[in-house]
Request: fold
Amino acid sequence: MKKRHVNIPIFIPHIGCPNACVFCNQRSISGHLDFDPASVDKEIAEALATVGDDITCEIAFFGGSFTGIDRELMLYLLGVAQKYIDDGRVEGIRMSTRPDYINERVLDDLSRFTVKTVELGLQSLDDNVLLASGRGHDAECAMRACRAIKEAGYELIGQMMIGLPNATPESELMTARLICEVGADGARVYPTVVFYDTELACMTLRGEYTPLTTNAAVERTKNVLGVFADADVPCIRVGLQASENLADDTKVMGGASHSAIGELAMGELYYERICREIERLGISGGDLTVYVSHGSVSKAVGQKKRNKERICQKYGIRRMKVLEKSDVLGYNIVLDTSHIK
Reply:
């Protein structure tokens, strides 16, 4: 049986990033106001004590721009993580960082450790969006970083955002396509949440930015998920985690803060694909079984059985059943119109 994979997250809030992106209040997002390097060893050990033999681990430096922190601190933290790799308890290291903090020296430093994955905060590959978002670099810088990471032999995860200033559905689709074309091994998609104490909150108050509604965020996220699905690039996360202050009205001003935004977007993609296949096959009425990939039944059924109800009503389906099938992968589906037993 394939072992389950988990990350041991070590949050480094904002200390590696002097930039001020309009959407970012990293300390509010992560909930970590301070960082004590001396506590990292203990934090990893405590996390590993809860991990069973059926789980593989990576130590993940998240929350800030890891390769932008003080070089000696970065090397120290990598050394702490490497100790657990050398004794066989951890498989590798992953980190999140910015495109403008990837260069030859950084990659040479990383090569001294068992780094497996670099998650790159691209956010957008449209220069107009990057400028309006205060990213401090252009799309070509981001593409160079992607290529350098892949050429160095690391797994690349491209992180992008939905609903940034100046972004359009078309620019988001372009970003997703470019992430695929550059050879990314996976993606994360984050619909924009407007946190207080950010420039984006000030832009909202001044009428310069309009946060996405939940419905708009779901639709636009669904579309980029379709791009990744068609390119066989797995999307490993959609939306911030519910623990990241999304339910705190004192932290969140607006935007796509629905705690199940990912589930909603994935459900819409399944709805779209099931409808398309029903229409391709000319199905109308009767019973229908939909086969989906492992772990995807709830997404295909939709939140509160929304997809099931809409499909039955739209196509006159009497009964619809959704089941897993081992040879169905990704967002592919197989329809069976024989009688449900």
